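INFO worker-7 received task bundle
INFO bundle size: 2
INFO processing item 0
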Amino acid sequence: MRFLSRRLVMPNDLNFAGSLFGGRILEWIDEEAYIYAACQLDAKSLVTKHIGAISFETSAYQGDVVEFGLGVKKVGRTSLTVTCVVRNKQTKQNICVADDIVFVHIDPATRTPEPHGKTQAELEDLKLETPE
């Protein structure tokens, strides 16, 4: 899993208890996973179909830098399933894990699913070409 981007936890990201609001982290996960999937498929006409198991493991607080690790889990004909791990940059503790995030490639005009044209093997080769 590659950790590709980071965010700073700001005051407006906090809940009443002073820790990172769960809804905010889910918003970030959806956005980061979309960017990752769009880059993997070289396509921007994707929609989020499903987000599976979500596990909150520890809290983040104002001033913490969180980083997003993403990886391809499964490649379908019209879909791509990714996993996202959010961790504290400094401590490396997992904050949240979102598994089975499914994106579907759609035709922009008809809004119906269409094949994205990538295979698991092509995405595996892409991983080998990308430096850690």
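INFO item 0 finished
INFO processing item 1
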Amino acid sequence: MKAKALLIDDEQPNLDNLQALLQTYCPQIDVCGTALNVEAAKRLLYVHQPDLLFLDIQMPGQNGFDLLRSLSTYNFDVIFVTAYDQYAIQALRFAAVDYLLKPVAIDELQAAVERAHKQRQLKEQNQLLQNLMHVLKAGHQQAEQRVALATAKETRFVKIGEIIRCESSNNYTTFYLTDGETLLVCKPIYAYDDLLKEYGFIRCHQSHLVNKQFVKSWKKDYGDFLLLADGSEVPISRAKKDDLKKALRL
């Protein structure tokens, strides 16, 4: 059975192009309607009850985030389609919500549609959108900001202030939390480097990212190590020493 999709963008050529791409390369999608603004989108949401929204963020008047804020429930998946916007994309990455950059690449479109299909099967997207709204509301308040961490069994929403450190293992990253719990996440550590940098996280080693609020001391017994509040010792690479001293104001 095909998934019903609603396309929302304030520019008609963008809608036409996306609809053509979906019809040609994503046969599992049935486009049930298009909308040029939030008010039209609300009407079509009520009429069609779509499974999937392709939603532009930057629109005059009310934007894509405003549309989601106006809804009480999310009975659909969302793929954001947007031009580059650092704040918006940062929020989407924190919430682990899917997005495509304009102009839309065919392979990325197909991959996003497939992920949306899997998320719909897991009934996971409601939580992702709810967390996106939380991220947007929290802004840059570290104590309130949450990041979505996808493990093999679930997606966890963890406050940034509860993360002590991250450790890389090939294409996986282990998160060490203040309550002693560890989470193995199916993404490499570099995916979280830029994401967490502005919240006080420091890349002290190729395989290690630490929250500087939990750094207790810099040890120099047998090489250089950071001693953290949970008792763990994290190595400092020679290449990261200068940057680390600046970050710790040493």
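INFO item 1 finished
INFO post-check item 1: The chain has a mean pLDDT of 88.
INFO post-check item 1: The domain at 148-247 is CATH 2.40.50.1020 (OB fold (Dihydrolipoamide Acetyltransferase, E2P)).
INFO worker-7 idle
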